[in-house]
């Protein structure tokens, strides 16, 4: 069946994997990718699909309400999959306001436009909001985040995502807007901007730069292969229950330091360095303010109700990720030129 689907943030890390999946898997859909192309958005991420007839790109800002209303009038979207966001916790600590504008106001603009566009004809429409497990806060040594876990966001990033999740549910409860929300754990894979832990450390190891481990490196994250996240979004978009929330995660918890040591080992092998060489770059630095201790997702609901399961073991996925960054040096050089150096100096020189 023909559908016109708006994907926001499709030039970013997860968005580009989702756009690729949807464009290739559903030739009968028209996929419209709306992205502001901030530092994190890069059209080179989508080179392989840009000339497909069922794909189009629009540069624009979700904070611009007038523009968003016009876009919905023009395209009459059947569905929205909303990923556009400011996504990096450290940046949210430096400057929370951008997160409030894009993540909260931007989401509200999209909800208002969908409500107006679909008024009186909600059947078959869907607003899918892509969110994070960070809205649930920080876990102790045991337990997992369930869909029913109360929200307890700790960083400006997670507070802005939590706020946007609440607005999505409020539009469902108040105006009967058809919505689904998913909350996913940390993603890793190709095309991730090298400010996040894994690509930053791959780049630093390659360049023999120090590896800034926050605090004691004992914080725990639950890592999921980005293509498994994109597959989960596809399944939830097509089969998820109106108004429901789905947690997405791969039961794959690592302390930061164990992950970093594994990464160093893989890099030693790939770069023909003596074992232990890359790990010498590890440097413990001042902890992140308000650093969440542990995230761990229980995705039983998604697995039992919709049959989604993660496809890759972490060691295999990490190795594939390293290979991608080493084979795509030009991509890495392009995204780390210009403003990146300034960001890096500001974030790390004083730590
Ligand atoms: P990203 O930072 O790589 O990409 C975000 C994209 O949004 C970029 O292409 C950027 O240009 C675009 N964008 C930013 N502000 C915009 C605006 N005002 N208007 C239009 N476009 C704008 O982020 P990501 O890691 O791909 O995350 C995508 C979504 O998934 C986010 O909503 C994030 O909260 C969520 N998420 C991320 C992770 C993760 O581990 N990366 C985990 C769970 C959920
Ligand atoms: P990050 O990739 O920023 O994801 P998030 O904060 O959303 O979980 O960080 C992952 C973990 O790695 C987190 O516990 C913070 C830590 N970290 C470092 O120790 N050093 C770094 O330079 C970065 C970017 C992160």
Query: Which ligands accompany this protein?
Result: nicotinamide-adenine-dinucleotide, thymidine-5'-diphosphate
The percent range for helix content is 40-55%
Task: Look at the structure and give the CATH class of the domain at 3-192 and 223-253 and 294-315.
Answer: Alpha Beta
Tell me the number of strands: 12
Major sheet: size, sense and barrel closure?
A: 7 strands, parallel
What spatial order of strands do you see in the largest sheet? 3-2-1-4-5-6-10
Mean pLDDT: 97
The third-level CATH topology of the domain at 3-192 and 223-253 and 294-315 is Rossmann fold
Taking all Cα atoms into account, the compactness measure Rg is 20 Å
Order of helices and strands: EHEEHEHHEHEEHEEHEEHEHHHH
CATH architecture of the domain at 3-192 and 223-253 and 294-315: 3-Layer(aba) Sandwich
Which ranges are low-confidence, i.e. pLDDT below 50, for 5 or more consecutive residues?
Answer: none
Q: Tell me the name of the CATH homologous superfamily of the domain at 3-192 and 223-253 and 294-315.
A: NAD(P)-binding Rossmann-like Domain
Distance between the termini: 54 Å
Shape: globular
Strand content: 15-25%
Give the key terms.
3-stranded mixed β-sheet; 7-stranded parallel β-sheet; binds nicotinamide-adenine-dinucleotide; 12 helices; 12 strands; alpha/beta; globular; Rossmann fold; binds thymidine-5'-diphosphate; 351 residues; single chain
